[in-house]
Amino acid sequence: MKRLIQATVCALLLAATPASYAVSAGAAKALGGVVADIVDEVMPAVVVVRTESTGYRLAQDWMFGRVYRLPERLAGMGSGVIINKEGFVLTNRHVIDGATQIEVVLNDQSKYSARLVGEDPQTDLAVLKIEDEKRTEFPYLEAGNSDVLRVGEFVMAIGSPFSLSSSVTLGIVSQKGRSIGALPYEDFIQTDAAVNRGNSGGPLVDMDGRMVGINTIIQTTGFSQGNIGISFAIPINLAMNVAQSIMESGSWQRPWIGILMNETKNGVLIQRIMQNSPADKSGLKTGDVITAVDATPVQSAREIQRLILSHDAGEEVALTVLRDGKEIHLALATELMPSFHSIVPNE
Predict the structure, then answer these.
(1) If I label 24, which of 60, 118, 174, 238 is the partner at 20 to 30 A Cα–Cα?
(2) Is residue 138 domain-resident?
(3) CA-to-CA distance for 50 and 163, rounded, in angstroms?
(4) What CATH number should be reported for the domain holding residue 329?
(5) Contact 202, 107 (CB under 8 A)
(6) Considering just the CA atoms, what is the radius of gyration of the chain in Å?
(7) Closest CA to 231 of 189, 201, 202, 198
(8) Closest CA to 105 of 38, 166, 191
(9) Sign of CA dihedral 285, 286, 289, 291
(10) Range(s) of the domain holding residue 76
């Protein structure tokens, strides 16, 4: 399917003379037909997430000078995607943050109550479960592989911007591995597919009809809250890893090895090792330079983070390091990341 689209685009670019307008129109129609077929397959698994929460506004009794906090009901809306036939829904944490009631609306307009299974503030992800005793299976969207996604590939963003449910936009992958300082851990896919308020939690889909990201944040300018051609999605490999952990345990069991790093031209330098961490127990030393993780060469701390986070807590990771000019191979078992206050660096 990707080759068909690439061939179609080439035909459009080559169709530059008046005599070839008919060919150009045919190529454009073929491209539109392919995109429409993918949308037909994907749309049943994309949902609207509606929430209700309680907020408070201040009111003053001017006669006696007292100030009251008056409760009021607040409505919110975002997007989500069903990730398995049992009706588990992946969305952004900020979509459901503080919600007292959650409702999921499918593309056929059927409505279901949903409960929060778990959430993770570090990645801004949350998992919901559709609750309905009569229905046991739901349409769902299969995950692709965000690691092999290439800059320049076509992608579609699907969601409910500005309350316009089941909206589809087409764009390309502008860049990968973006960090914008919005979350504790970031490895965003940047795209120019139009994403706006309400798209949060909806899927980013490739031309094979597979989910490659979860649309999360847009870049705006001035007083505008609309899309300016820069939006960001959480890679699906990370998102599904978090979602699977939440479905199994209610939270993301984040793996760690316990090091602070700095990038050098030869690899990634270990600046500090945390006490009683997997790195401490494995024999890693301050000053070691990590050159590969699981036989994959690395040049940045972000690459190491991505590879570590692809594991479950407790799984073994293979490291290649340089120490005093010699290459050393070490294996260590990742552990569940402890609370921040219990992390102590070695002196």
Answers:
(1) 174
(2) no
(3) 10
(4) 2.30.42.10
(5) no
(6) 24
(7) 189
(8) 166
(9) positive
(10) 48-131
Indicate the helix (H) or strand (E) that contains 27: helix 21-42
Calpha distance 222→162 (Å, rounded)? 19
Q: Which two tokens stand for residue 279?
A: 């790195």
Backbone φ and ψ for 276, nearest 5 degrees, come out as 60, 20
Please state the φ and ψ torsions of residue 225, each to the nearest 5 degrees.
-115, 10
| Phi and psi at residue 140, to the nearest 5° | -140, 165
**Total count of domains within the chain:** 4
Is residue 140 situated within a structural domain?
Answer: no
3-state class of 146 per DSSP?
Answer: helix
Model confidence, pTM = 0.81
Instruction: Write out the catalytic residue numbers.
Output: 94, 124, 200
Task: Find where tokens 């090091």 sit.
Answer: 259
Residue 200: partners with Cβ closer than 8 Å, 6 or more residues away: 78, 79, 91, 92, 94, 95, 159, 215, 216, 217
Question: Any idea what the CATH number is for the domain that residue 217 is in?
Answer: 2.40.10.10
Residue ranges of E strands in the chain = 46-61, 66-82, 88-92, 101-105, 111-120, 125-131, 154-159, 167-178, 188-191, 203-206, 211-218, 231-235, 255-256, 259-263, 268-273, 289-293, 296-297, 316-323, 326-333, 335-336
In a domain, 291, yes or no: yes
Per-residue pLDDT, averaged over 202-219, amounts to 92
Q: Are 277 and 257 in contact (CB under 8 A)?
A: yes
Which tokens go with 61?
Answer: 């009794």
